[in-house]
Amino acid sequence: MLSVLKKFNLKQDLYSFLTLISVLSILMPLFQFKFFYTIKPYMAVIPVCFFVGWFFRERFQVNKSSVRQCVFEKMLIVFIVYSGVSFFWSDYPDASIKMFLAMCVLSFIYFFLRNIVVNLSLDGLVKVLIISGLVINLVSLLLYIFSFLSLDGNFNSMPKGTYMGLLVDRGVPRLTGLLNDPNLFVVMNLIFVFVSFSFRQFKMSKMLMVVSLCSVFLTFSRGGWVAIFIGLVCVFVFSMFKDSKPINFIKLALVVLTFVLMMVVFYQFIPEQYKVYFVERFAHIGSASGRFKLWNNAVSLLPQSGLFGFGIFSAKHVNCDMFMSCKYFHNTYLALLLEVGVLGFALYYLPHVYLLIKTIKVMLFNLNENVVRFSSFLFGVHVSILAMMMSLTIYANEILIILFSLHVLLHSVYQREAFGEVKR
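Request: output the structure for the sequence above.
Response:
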């Protein structure tokens, strides 16, 4: 039995499958229920995948890959501990302890996921992400089309509501996939947009690029479009420093021009009804869907939050009590400043800055082309997620455990390079 298994790359095949299942369980929450918390499939699936990998590794004596705890992980632990301590001065201790426990659960899930992902090669992980992206985006588009046709395309008189893969918002049918928020769908889809862009040499990546961009467009998420654009521009700007030939500046100009032309051409060929939706979304850009009012409320509270803040996960409750608006502030930066103060804000974003700097160094100085591609993909995703934080409160979102796991894999490549064991 062992000799048969050795004919195949058991480690790569096994961990590719486990990673695929893990990623799909995070991004396709088919079943979930509330029991104090929202219980989601990945909370059970990822630990099971970890122990399956551990069982086969021990049973068939497969060499394991491991990586020591990274610096950014220690920084995040400090933030989580600080958030838990904020319970003692929180104005809303019940909410604070709830979020602290949720972050602890996410941390454990992250531990399992990163120890699955680190066993893959870069190419192996990219292929898993491409397959995951195709499955998620094709299912999302099919659900959207089904709901669109079922509702006969008459949305102007319909109240706001979610229908299997589609959200009707002020007469605009917005794609949500298997989530309930089109903006969160864009956040989840950023990984697939950038992996298809950075690894165009794979056959299925071109198809993924088309379906993922179509999905993002159908969300009618203005913040999502802007975030992708910012991410792409940042990737090209830093890639120009690696090779400052004039052709790179031309490439950057072509990217900007292509993006604008693509939007213009797409607008010309879409059905007339979608032009109405498109205009409708941008007609209200000045109000940012009510976000400017929420942000003004948050800014007015900043002097009161001080160095330590009101306590983790208290922003919504503060907004409700002070302004009779029981909504999140839809801005991660403002939410953190209010909840954990300047100190907590610095503790949270310090690991993000650290990771971006490390990734930029790889982009600029690493000689392995595949590693550079992966780092540019990761840099673009990370920058875009930070841009999306301007319009969403997502400091403890599931997408971050995938993002950090990808960073750990890149870090493990440093170790393999140091010992002469670099794998594509």
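Residues 1-64 form one domain.
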